[in-house]
Amino acid sequence: MDSFNLLMSGFATAATPMNLLYAFIGVLLGTAVGVLPGIGPAMAVALLLPVTYGMEPTSAFIMFAGIYYGGMYGGSTTSILLNTPGESSTVITAIEGHKMAKSGRAAQALATAAIGSFVAGTIGTALLVAFAPLVVKFAVSLGAPSYLAIMVLALLAVTAVLGSSKLRGFASLGLGLAIGLVGMDPVTGQQRLIFGLPLLVDGLDIVVVAVAIFAVGEALWIAAHLRRTAMHVIPVGRPWMGKQDWKRSWKPWLRGTAFGFPFGALPAGGAEIPTFLSYVTEKKLSKHPEEFGHGAIEGVAGPEAANNAAAAGTLTPMLALGLPTNATAAVMLAAFVQYGIQPGPLLFESEPQLVWALIASLFIGNTLLLLINLPLAPMWAKLLRLPRPYLYAGILFFATLGAYAVNLQAFDLMILLVLGLLGFAMRRFGYPILPLVIGLILGPRAEGQLRKSLQLSGGDISGLWNEPIAVVVYAIAAVILVWPLVLKLWHRSHPKPLLPVLSEDSTGSVAVGPRDPAGQSDESGAVATAPVSRGRRTARPFTDDERGEDKA
């Protein structure tokens, strides 16, 4: 009942005219940013961090939350109309959503995505209200060793599951930890990694680093691959759903929510895994499995619900433990630091008005997003026609202006350029961005808990694991690190049987025989065949005609 009363007081704060205006601005900006391909909510929040310096913290975080949820909504529009996911979490939506759009059902695809996001976001926020205070009570009982162990687990988990190479992931994490060390040692006052530059004594501003890595790095990356040809956008009317569409969508919305929230609350859980699990589940449970791959509405409803429920789940560890589980949460955590607010278990006691107003604004923002997305879908489609050179030139301008506004020093612009080039290089060579950002945010805090643990134990190394929870967490971290190696050794000692080879029959089709690494079969075990050239025996991808897909 106490949580309910606090939530009501949060609604009283969030429903003031000025905060409602900020919530509206946030969801509008977030949706617009989510619609534009290649620009995610993390970049939007990073760009707006300098703008909010003069704002009251509660209003600023209400706007940030609107941007976060709005970015999740808007990403589905790009996936459905362009087959270009703006965020990795909307990749699954593009599979069925774009097929629906090509067959003339873009309106229904956008509607089920918007309504499913509203349902999942509302339920996810209600779960946040229920579970965040419980997590806080648990976290307050933790000592420094246990808190350090949880931070180490978060760093390792985020790093171990991202990217194609764990080595690149840990290299990215090392860069983030190194950037976090720049400045003066908080205990001894010794200068670290400043290279004789007095302006680095106070360390690198988190806002400048976030803007450089996300905005400048992404803009340079896009510029290196820029195509000046206009994007083909499928026209769409006002989204609506028929009776049959509602019947086929409401269960996937609920199942997607059940998948999304727990994964969002886990370190490195993210939204990618639950969206994939939701898609697979809907394909197995659907009464129309033949439509999957050709535009099944369940394949849009479930993953979109999972995506937005994961967004609500992400805020649970961020507010209760101070642990970000994705890039946007990491940037929002930087915003807390910018305002001198320490996120974590004591946040609910030290800043209850801010926390509960932020949570209440999520309910308000969800409703605003539904009201905005349904009537304005045609306008968002037109926004996709904006030339990319103009778009990214504007991003670079605002990034430069924002970085300069932090300290009004030209030196920050040099840092912005250097770290922007670092962000570009990381994208070029496949290094994940998230471990760097989370290492930068959590590194100094983990260092503080490490020193506190050693001080409490008189310098004895065993003080790092002298609490039962710390031992359990370190065991989980060890499993995360060792399990992939065990699987690799298992597969090496138990090789798979040889696959079939291609052989050509008299009709010019590819028949499957032993030893073919490219042979494919469907779920029934039937072998896929495709014509090949008489002159050259090379494999090539199947075309839409050969797959028999609907090209409408």
Automatic annotation (TrEMBL):
Identify the domain of life: Bacteria
Q: Where are the transmembrane segments?
A: 20-49, 109-132, 138-162, 169-186, 206-224, 318-341, 353-377, 389-407, 413-443, 464-486
Chain intervals with Basic and acidic residues compositional bias: 542-552
Q: Where in this chain does the record put each DUF112 domain?
A: 20-438
Keywords, sorted A to Z? Membrane, Transmembrane, Transmembrane helix
One Pfam family in the UniProt entry: TctA
> Does Transcription appear among the keywords?
no
Q: Does the keyword Transcription apply?
A: no
Q: Where is this region: Disordered?
A: 505-552
Q: Entry's PANTHER family?
A: TRICARBOXYLIC TRANSPORT PROTEIN
The protein in question is named: Tripartite tricarboxylate transporter permease
**Which organism does this record belong to?**
Arthrobacter sunyaminii
Classification lineage: Bacteria, Bacillati, Actinomycetota, Actinomycetes, Micrococcales
